[in-house]
Amino acid sequence: MPPRAESIRFEPVAEEHLPMLHGWLKQRHVRQWWGDPDEELALIRSILEEDDGTEGYVVFLDRKPVGYVQSWRPANFGGTHWVEEAPWLNEVPPDTMGVDVFIGPANLIARGVGPRIIRAFAERLFALGTPRLIIDPDAANRRAVRAYEKAGFVAFGRHDRNGESTILMEITPDRLERAA
Asked: What are the protein's UniProt keywords (predicted)?
């Protein structure tokens, strides 16, 4: 008998998740790409208080919390201070959604969990009518880029700023289906 597939569930971020998320943000494999844990936690906390179109979720794999994923509307950030860091935001169609993700427990890195989470989250957003998703990993984060490629994302651009490069990647419902 083949092993059963593990179930993935997304639970909206709540106040009680914040200590766990902060602990994950402090871990080297997350902090390296997400930045200062206190600043990142403040941004995640702001999702609970503001309505800018960003939605954050704790990811559960077979009822165990394993990561964080968020969706956001790039169109809501064009023309703001974020454009200084990411001018490409002004070029994204308004119906596009952005996605960010990290895996919390270090022992789950490089085990195929990331692509599965990303695919499940993309399926969820596409079912709600989103026509295109983008993600913008640091070009040096080869592990993340490879996970996004495994999930079906393809590069469509690159942004260089202050000696750092970001790869702009996208996926559409038809690409997700072809990557299955």
From this structure: Antibiotic resistance, Transferase
Domain ranges (residues) in the chain = 8-179
Give the Å distances, CA to CA, from 161 to 22, 79, 133, 158, 165: 28, 18, 22, 10, 6
Residue 60: exposed, middle, or buried by beta-carbon count in 10 A (0-12, 13-18, 19+)?
A: middle
Q: Is 18 helix (H, G, I), strand (E, B) or coil?
A: helix
If phi over 0 gives left and psi between -120 and 50 gives alpha, with beta otherwise, what is residue 14? beta
Please report, as a single letter, which amino acid is at residue 101. Answer: V
Q: pLDDT of the chain along its 180 residues, tens only?
A: 334 456 999 999 999 999 999 999 999 999 999 989 999 999 899 888 877 778 999 999 989 999 999 998 877 765 555 556 666 666 777 788 999 999 999 998 888 899 999 999 999 999 999 999 999 999 999 999 999 999 999 998 888 777 888 899 999 998 888 876
CA distance 107 to 28: 12
CA atoms within 13 A on the CB side of 171: 28
Query: Over the range 24-46, which residues count as b (16 or more CB within 10 Å of their CB) and which as e?
Result: bbebebbeeebeebeebbeebbe
Of 58, 137, 72, nearest to 105 (Cα)?
58
